[in-house]
Amino acid sequence: MLPLSADSNPNDLLNLIRLPDDLRRLSKRQLPQLATQLRAELITLVAQTGGHLAANLGVIELTIALHYVFNTPDDRLVWDVGHQAYGHKMLTGRREAMSGLRTRDGLSGFTRRAESPFDPFGAGHSSTSISAALGMAAAAKLQGKHHHAVAIIGDGALTAGQAFEALNHAGELKANLLVVLNDNEMSISKNVGALNQHLTRLRSNPVVNKLRQGGQTLLSQTGPLGEILNTTRVGFRDGVKHLLGVTSLFEELGFQYFGPIDGHDLPLLVDTLENLRHQSGPRLLHVVTQKGRGFNPAELDPVRYHGVGKFDPKIEPQPITPTTSKTWTQGFSDWLETQCHKPEVVVITPAMIEGSGLAGFAARHPQRCFDVGIAEQHAVTFAGGLATEGLRPVVAIYSTFLQRAWDQVIHDIALQNLPVLFAVDRAGLVGPDGATHAGSFDLAFSQAIPNLNIAVPADAKELRAALDFGIAADAPVLVRYPRGECPVDLGGEAARTPFGLRVRRMANHPAQSLLIVALGSKVQTALKASTDLAATIVDLRWAKPIDWTALLPMIHQHAGWLIIEEGSQLGGIGATLIAHTAELGLCKPVRHLALPDQFIEHGTRGECLTDCGLDEMSLNSTMTDFLRQVLPA
After folding, report:
1. 63 and 145 inside one domain
2. By residue range, what is the domain housing residue 624?
3. Secondary structure (DSSP) of 109-132
4. Residue among 450, 451, 445, 522 nearest 481 (CA)
5. How many CA atoms lie within 13 A of 504 on its CB side?
6. Which CATH number belongs to the domain containing residue 358 in this structure?
7. Alpha-carbon torsion 64, 70, 74, 76, what sign?
8. CB count in 10 Å sphere of residue 315
9. 211 has pLDDT over 80
10. Residue 214 burial (CB < 10 Å; 0-12/13-18/19+)?
11. What is the residue-wise DSSP string for 172-189?
12. Which of 327, 481, 494, 610 lies deepest, with the highest CB count within 10 Å?
C-alpha cells in the first residue's frame, strides 16, 4: 500500500488512505470516487476469502462518512454485529491484512478489541451496540471527557429486546449518544414485524420527508419570525408532527430523530453527520441503504449473498458451490417436510428462515412458520405459549444464538415441562466465523436443566429418529447437530430402547480394548480414528437421559474408556459420566476429550478441531497412547 505522498496518483484515492487521518485530508467532492474504489476492492477481496458481502456493500458510503466526520479512534464507533465492518477495517490500517480475513491468525470477520484501537467493542451477535456505546458515553461524562460515542445498528438488529432496553435507558439518561440506524429492510432473512412496518411508514410518509427536508429552509425565509421559530425548530417540528400523527417511536423514547436520508448520498451524509456532531443528547439518524449495493447479484439476492464462500465475481453466478452430500441443516429440512400434514406442528425461528432450512416449510405453510425477528428470548417463550394450547412447536435456532435464551428455556419451558422441540443447528465448532459463533456451551448448559431431554445424533438416520421422538414427546426435547455434511448411516447395532445407546463397532476382546464413548459429530471421527485399534465404539445418542443400564457393564468389560464430545469440557457430558462412575466406585482408567476452557479462534473447521485434539489424526494418536497405558505389559 502506498503512503500518502506527492507522487501518489490523485485518481487512486484508496492507495492514499492508511488511516482515517488520511481520509480526512480528502475534499468532500473526492469521497464518492473513494467509495467506488473501496466497494470494488471489497468485492474482489471477499471473492477471494469468502465472508459477509451484501451487508458490507450497503454501508460503504456510511463508513466513509463516519470516519470523515468523527475523530476516530478517539471518537468511538461501535458497529452492531460487526459483519458489516470490512470497509471500516480497510480504512483503519488493516487493508493489507484483508487477504487473511477469517483465516487462521488472520483478521476476524467481526470487530474485535484486540485487533485494533479503532474497534472499541467486540461484536459477533446482534443488538449490543447501543448498550455498549451508551456505556462509553456515560463513562465519558463521569470522567470529564468529550469524545463522541456512535452506535451503528441495522433495522434487523433493532428488533431485539436489548436494543430497546438500551434506547429506553439512553433516553432516561439524556446521554450524549448518536445512534445511526442503518435501514436496509434486511437482517439475514427479510425483516418482519411491527417495527419494520413503522420504519416503512417513516421511509414512505411524504409529510415526514417534507417536514425534515424543507422545514428549516422555509423557516429561514420568513425573516425575524423565522429566526425565532428556527431557534425553537425542534419543538415546532415536533408539535407539527404530533398534530399530524407522524411522530416516530424514537422520539417517544427521548431521542431527537433525524431522517430518513439516503445512505448512499455521501455529501448529504457528511453534512448531516457534521451537524449532528455539534449537537448533544440522545440523537438517532435514520439512514436508508441498499444491501448488496454496487454488485448486481447481491442487489438482486441479498439473502444468498449475505454470507458467501469464495467465488469469481466476473463469471460465477452462484457464490456458494453446491455439493452432492446433504448437510445436517438439509437433513432437518427434509424431516420438517414430513411434518407438513400435521396441523399442530408449528415452527419458530429468530430471523433465520434460510439458514435453519425453513424456506420450504415457510413457503408451503406460512401461517405455521413464525419468524419473530432477532428475538431469541421471545421465540422460546412464544413457543411455550403455543405449546400450552396443544400445538407442537419446533424452535429452529443456532446453538450460539440459543445462548441468549437459556433463562426462557429453564423458566418458561422446562419448569413447566412443555412439549417444545429445539432444533439446535451449528452445535460445536463453526470455523471461519470464530468464537462468537461457535456452539461450544449448549451441552454444558442444557444437561443441568431438569425435564429437558438432549439428543446428539451421529448421522441422518439418528437425526430423523431424534426429531420424530421430539415432536411426539410430552416433554421438552433438544436435538443438537453440527455444521457441515451429514453422514447417512454409520451402521452398527440398533438401539434397544428409545433412549438407548448404539454400539457402532464391537471389539473382539473387550478386556484388551478401549471403550470409546462418542457423541454426535465425533462418532464418525472416532470410527475412522480407531480403524486399526482394539476399540469398541459406542454412540451415546442421548446426552440426557444416559443409558446407564447398557453403558456401565461395558465400562466394566473394557481395559479403559475414553469420552469424546464437541462441546465444553467443563460441565460437559464427559464430566457427568466420570463423576457418576466415580460415585459408584467404578475406577477404570478414563480420558475425556472435549473443547478446552478457552475461546477457539477462527480458522477452518479442520484447523479448529486440530487445535482441540479432536481431528482424526489427533484422536488416533491419543487412543494409541492411552491403549498402551491401560494394557498390561
Report:
1. yes
2. 502-630
3. SS--TTT-TT--S--SSSS-HHHH
4. 522
5. 28
6. 3.40.50.970
7. negative
8. 6
9. no
10. exposed
11. HHT-SEEEEEEE-SBSSS
12. 481
574, 518: one domain: yes
404 is catalytic: yes
Specify whether 601 is catalytic. Answer: no
Catalytic residue among 376, 462, 566, 607: 376
Q: Is residue 514 part of a domain?
A: yes
Grid cell digits, residue 532: 486399526
Tens of pLDDT along 584-626?
999 999 999 999 999 999 999 999 999 999 999 999 999 999 9
Catalytic-residue membership of 291: yes
Domain boundary among 194, 223, 245: 245
Q: Are 303 and 351 in contact (CB under 8 A)?
A: no
Q: Which three cell numbers stand for residue 422?
A: 429445539
Predicted structure pTM score: 0.85
Given 212, 404, 483, 502, the catalytic residue: 404
| Digit-coded pLDDT (tens) for 32-75 | 999 999 999 999 999 888 888 888 999 999 999 999 999 999 99
Q: Which of 94, 95, 241, 291 is catalytic?
A: 291
CB 147 within 8 A of CB 126: no
E strand or H helix that includes residue 268: helix 266-277
Beta-sheet pairing, 502-505 with 535-539: antiparallel
Residue with cell 452432492: 324
Gap between the Cα atoms of 346 and 240, Å rounded: 45
